[in-house]
Amino acid sequence: PITHFANIGRGVIDLRDILYFVTLISTFLSATFLIVRSRTLSHQTSQYRNLQLGVAGLIVLSILIGWFGSDIKGRIDLTEDKVFSLSPATTQILNDLDDLLTVDIFMSADPPVQVSPVSRDVNDFLDDFEAGSEDKVKVVRHYPEDDEKAERRANTAGVPPVQFNLHSQGELQIKTGYLGIILTYIDKREIIPFVDTIDGFEYRLASLTNKMLSDNQEKKTIGFTGGHGEISPTQGMMTFASIASQQYNLVPVSATPDEPLPLDGVDVLVVSSPKEPLGTRHENSLKEYIQQGGKVFFNLESVLVDIQQLAGLPNRHSLAGFIEREFGIVLEENIVYDLQSNETIGFSAGTRGNVILPYPYWIRAVIEDNKVAGNVDTVVLPWANTLGILDLPDSKYLITPLIRSTSYAAVDDSFRNLKPDSPILTDPLQTNFFSSDLAVTAEGSNGSRVVIVGDADWLSESATQRFSNNVLLGLNLLDWLAQEDKLASVRSKVVSERNMVFSSDRHRNLVQYSNIGGVPLLLILTGLLRFWVRRTRGFKENWRRGLQGTRSQV
Asked: Which tens digit of pLDDT belongs to each residue from 382-405?
């Protein structure tokens, strides 16, 4: 039952779940009807025996429907982004297949309870994957635990068994399970050793298929500037760079002081938090690259945070002057905090170990432009700076807000104390809360595209390891800049949190207790109203009868 309830909780109505609950309800209703009806019938009569046979037949039929109905497939995806349905982008990739794509899935016939829901979802998705391919995809299922040949093939191909701990009757048992996939297209092969979650499964399958289709096509190049104190992709952004490298060629753009930046062959340039001056020559290289239709991803910081002391220092070489001159975007020297939409992180408490506290300087900001960001709704920005948009009369760029803080945010202009108990966070006189731009896009008439984010830590390891939306947004922005955003809508199809933002603790408590007591109170009020209506109606009927009796006596 837990598995069937889990599907409904995720926003999926499955025909097998409906059959299960209908079977369960009909079985108990039949038994209840037999018990109630037997009280009014003699147990020696043929009518009672017929009733027993009819109810028993109905119960057996219900059990059979529930048992064999598990093979009947069909579902309704009620999620907003159709997370559990095949997306148009995936269908387009399947339409581009020129030959048969074989999907070999190695799975357990009786999977461990930890992967049983995932195994079912993967099976359903592969059925949709095969059905939407117009006979260009063939799904073959193997059960290595029951077939030695399939077991040898799985181990040789790199699909090993995974062990799970099972607690049964107070004993710890170890059970192995398979759930790996091999994709074969012509002479190319891709492997997914184990599928541990359905989240992002469609993207993995679609991207691997697209990779086999485009192996003969040259990947676009993403260049990362260095030599000015920038964050290195191989050290500070390993998770983001590792995933991006599956689709793009990542190269360093090393700076030489008296020479222009080597930007030939770079399709998208990433500039992440320079802390040393670029110099006139390198700034001119950036300017010329953009004027020639180049694409640049700026992650800039006007304030550098000392993580040990939790205090900020101004970054005099943040490229704030460059983006203001070129795009009319002002990188303001402040740090945004949000008292309602923020994240909890761990802080050292000395001998007491670590404590988990809300940290308003790590804000959860809202996506404004989903055409660029895909289906990502929110992103966590640590120690972000606000951006101001100047209305330049001769600007060649269309500026569009990309990320904004909520209306419960404010700015810390001093940034001397960034601790979770900073006095500015509890100042009762602070009433200047407002929504601010934290990232923008700029599109030039010459075809250039630019993304400017007032933060660089949002793609760091500490952020991407905790907040998957940060990686998704970063990859979607790369795709938009490289104009390779075919898979952006697929990548963003994950089950993500939808945090509720409250204006105060009183507001949160009101919503919480209204949900707890609201429904019972509504039922009580409905019952009292119905009782009052029936009682009033009874009084009126009695009054009319009394009035009619009085008239008849007269």
From this structure: 999 999 999 888 889 999 999 999
